[in-house]
Amino acid sequence: MKKVQDREYCLCFLNINYMGLIFEKMCQDYLLYYSDNLLVELSEIGQWWGTDRKKKKQMQIDIVGTPVEGKDYIIGSCRHRSTVKSGW
Questions:
Q1: Is pLDDT above 50 for 28?
Q2: What is the CA 3 to chain-centroid distance, rounded?
Q3: What is the pLDDT of residue 9?
């Protein structure tokens, strides 16, 4: 593992974290763009942070689509990689 003082390592680390947030926003926008094709009419799309009482730890849900009416939510996860996995 490289030292934190290594400027290139720090910039790369910051860029990966930044792109993860951008990718989550892109996923939310994609869902909003294609929302007419969903079985649930959404009033808003966002994310959720909270505590899992059973596991006693913080959790994040990347995409939460809130329905206009009813209890059918859209829930999803977004994963961004800075490298391409071979075979995909």
A1: yes
A2: 29
A3: 45
